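Recap from last week: sequence in, structure out.
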Amino acid sequence: MIFEPSRSQGAWIRAGALALAAQAVLASPATSAPLPAYIGPGAGFAAAGSALVLVGTFALAFAIVAIWPIKAAIRTFRMRGLAKPKVDRMIVLGLDGFDPDLYRKFAAEGLMPNFQALEKEGCFRPLETAYPSISPVAWSSYATGVDASRHNIYDFLTRDPCNYMPALSSTEVKELPKSLNLGFAKIPFGTKVVTRLLQKSQPFWKLLGKNFVWSSIIRVPITFPAQKFDNGVLLSGMCVPDLQGTQGSFSFYSTKPRSGDAHIGGQQYVIRKSAAGVVESNLTGPAGADRHRMKCPFKVTFDEAKREATFEVEGEKATVGYREYTPWMRIPFKGAQGIARFYVQTWDEKDVEIYVTPINIDPDKPAMPISHPLVYSIYLAKTLGPYATLGLAEDTWALNERVVDEEAFLKQSWLIFEERKKQLWDVVEKTKKGFVTVVFDTTDRICHMFYRYLDPTHPANAGKDTEVFEHTIRDLYAKMDEFLAEVRAKVNDKDGKTVFCVLSDHGFCNFRRGVNINAWLRDEGYLVLKDGAETSGDWFENVDWSRTKAFTLGLTGIFINRKGREAKGIVAPGPEMESLCREIQGKLQALVDPATGQTAVLEASITKEIHGGPYADLAPEILVGYQRGYRHSWDCATGAVSKDVFTDNTKSWSGDHCVDPRLVPGVFWCNRPINTERPNIMDLAPTALDMFGVDIPKYMQGSSLFGERVRDQQLREFPSKPHPAPEKMPATTKKPAEKPERV
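Predicted structure tokens:
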């Protein structure tokens, strides 16, 4: 199973090293100070001076080229006696959120011929997902072959037990003092920001690399900061921050004041358009040395006759038509550089509204470790052009907050999809032998935002015309079928030596009603507010921790306010906590929505009864498996306590998967048969190792999908309730177009 990088791989590594030196990666002024961390609760940000970077990058480039012959000799010596691979390549195409029931529905309508052909050639199975059924958990299980209690990721957010404030589950950000050690004294000079991946265990591509198998890993979630490994490249995915250090902060500029609630995840600015049709304002960036947010000016000139707008940022210009995105434009700040796209959302005689995407880290001058090696993001930018680097690049919050409309969101999503296609073509071409995985998020994001159009009675549709986007998800699936044909043509497995798989991390279901578990815990006496308070704002603003036994934050579970773990814990571990968990579990499973008469929770699980790994003790004590149609409410996710337990979900974000995992399995296709009717997402890591002759570690809970099935997954069988029937999808009300229109 020995794979040396192909000539093309070695060539771009050496070229990238030289490009890094020549371009001076960060290109920040020599006088700039390191920027402080900003947790909102996204990851932080740091920049370095260009003079030091220039010296370092030249040294790095020289070292990479100089040691290449030595590494090749060592590799040749170490390769002797190793097992032989069973295949030349294994390619895994990730379609985040692709749903088996939707696939079956659209296949029955004749829209999925290429997926059906792949099914006949090899296999198709629903793919058992992780518990909780949420992307960071599932993709972490994909990478490591273990469950959440062993890789330590249970949600996007967790709470800091020292102060109950939110923290990103996947990444730790610390600001540490810098000093010069002279031996007899340390001289302080500023601070540095350190990022650390909190995912435990190890990804299978690290094990492949140790056995000289090349891996190309593109945008797999929970790979930030990019971790080093032998023999491969990686571009980070979900949880890469924007340049402000958040998980995505858009900017919205309008000549008219905007009414309603404050934005979540973005900034609003009031602007003026001059008589000459010019708008001037500033983009907000990361904090500078003085701890204040830095600004970058921009100008827009509107040509009424041509209906075009010309955007200018620091001498760079881009002219686009009304409701067209600009290309990526460079956004320079002192010590850092980002990229963003501009879009004119509204333009009439009186007013204009301008949307600006979150300022992404510039992959050509990365201010944070978004790839491995560092030169890889630069290589992609040089050869393929600029591209989105933000972990959640499709701006769902801008649509949720209605600063953009559905048309703008779809245009943005498909632009990002095309960028990802170029990256896929590149790694398929470059990786002649080894492992390839590329994850596409478009399928997930569009289903989140357009699922309401599958349900005409969804609360978010009240008073709106739903016909325009009625077939958006149908068209999405049809386009993915066309895309599959393109991928298979590129893979071109004529000799049968490539294993080709398509999978998703979870499926989808309707999200009609939000449940504020904190409000329910208050009503049941488990969460207590300060005297006189009936509700609480975000992040447990009015919670009395001295009397609170349980609380929730994020999207997946309930924490016990435990002595010895939480700062103000009052529940003793042992029999007292076990009794409390059982009591809450029973009441929660009996929770009925008064508006519908339905139970909201299919099954609440006590974490330690389904997960036995070392990190289960840090997880929520109870995991909430909702019924279809229900999920944690938006304010519950941010630690608020609302007046009502149940509320309608009126957001554009109308589809979800944070429910009982039996309701939202993913999908799995392969170009050859597999050895089980119930593949699990944890099976992919051992399968990849097996295909390249690498021993599967005993700690992995999955099994190879080929050959003899040597172990069963250590999965919960959920004996207390039967497996729910698939969701009934509404029938198509109109005859599908032969070729769905593309946005």
